[in-house]
Write a structure and sequence with these properties.
This protein is α/β, with parallel strands linked by helices and 386 residues long. 38% of the residues lie in helices and 15% in strands. The termini are far apart.
Length: 386
Amino acid sequence: MKELDHIINHFGEERSQYFNAVAPPLMQSSNFAFQTVAAMREGLKHEMDKPFYTRGHNPTVAILQQKIAALEGTEACLTFGSGSAAIAAAVMSAVKGGEHVVAVQKPYSWTFKLLDQLLSKYHVTVTWVDGRDPENFRAAVLPNTRLFILESPNSMTFELQDIQAVCEIAKQHSIATLIDNSYATPLNQRPANMGADMVMHSASKYLNGHSDLVAGVLCCSRERAEAIFASEFMTLGGILAPHEAWLILRGLRTLPLRMQRVAESTPKVVEFLANHPKVDQVLYPHHPSFPQYELALRQIKAPAGQFSILLKAEKLGDVERFCDRLKYFILACSWGGYESLAFPIAALIDSDGNYSATSLPWNLIRFYVGLEDPEVLIEDLENALE
C-alpha cells in the first residue's frame, strides 16, 4: 500500500534538517537552548510542538509520534514510558472523582488494577461487562458514566467487541471511548475510523518488535491530545526517552513484514493444536471454531500471532510438565517480538498479589508465534504434548 510505505519509510523525516542522514538522528538531549528571551518565551508557548525540555517535546520522539498518528488515522499521538502509563493518562483525562467507567471483563491486568484499586480511592466506580454484546455497554450506563474502555481482542481469551456499535452507543450518551489496539496493530485494525476517541498501544509489542524496550502510545484528536499534554502527560511525567523512540522508529521499518510473517505462520500452528487430542480448546479470533469468527474477519484485516489453548490436564503439574518441555516457545510474558513465547496461567498460582487473584482457568496457556519457521514450532509443541 502506497500510503503505508510512505508513513513507515519517509513520513515525518525532514532529512534536510539533519545533514540528509537517511536514519533520523537520536537527539539524546534533555535541554534545548535559545538565543533570546523572546525566543524562549515563544518556545514555552508551543511546548508540545517545539523543543524546550525533552519531557514535553523531543525531535526524535516527535518523528515517532507523527508516524504512529498517521498509521492510526488520528490527528495526534502522545508517547509514554509504558502501555500502563498511556492507559492511566487516558483514563484520568476522561474521568474525575465520583464518576463512572464501563470496561470490558478480563482486561489487561494493570488496567484492572488502575480501576479496581487506584482510582477507586478517588471514588471512581467501574462496571465490568461482557463486551461481546454491545448492548451490555448501554445497559451499564449511569448518569455519571464518562468512559467506555474496550480491549478488542482481550489479551488472554481474545473476546472481541463490535467497535463501531459500542462507539455509537457511547456517542449517543456523550461518553468517551478508549480502546487497546495492541493485538491487531494499526495495519490490521483502525478503531478511530470506527468511532473510537482514544486508541492506545503497548508499543513494547508489535510496534517495536524486538523485545528490547517498554513503551506506550496514545492516539487521539489534536484537541484531546493538547488537554492530556497540559495535564496528565506533563504532570505525571511518564514520558518515552529519545533512545527508546529511536529504537521503535527502527522497529517500525519492518512492521509490515513481521505482521505478514505471523499472519502466515500462526494459523498453521493453531490448526495443529485445534486437532490435537490433548488440547481441549483453542482460542484464536481467526480460527473457524472461534465464536466471534465472523466479526474477526470483518473487523481485523489479517491474523495476528497470539492465541490461547485450554490444555486437557488433570492437575497443575501436567501443565507445568508440558510447558517445561517446550524449547522454541520461551516461557515469558509480553509478546510482539521475534521470539515465540508461552505464558501459562499456572505461573500465577501462588504468585504475588498483583496477579494471583486471576479468574482465568489454571489450564489456560497463551502463546505468541514469532518469526521462526512454523514447522519448527509445531514439532516443539508435538514433542511437549507427548
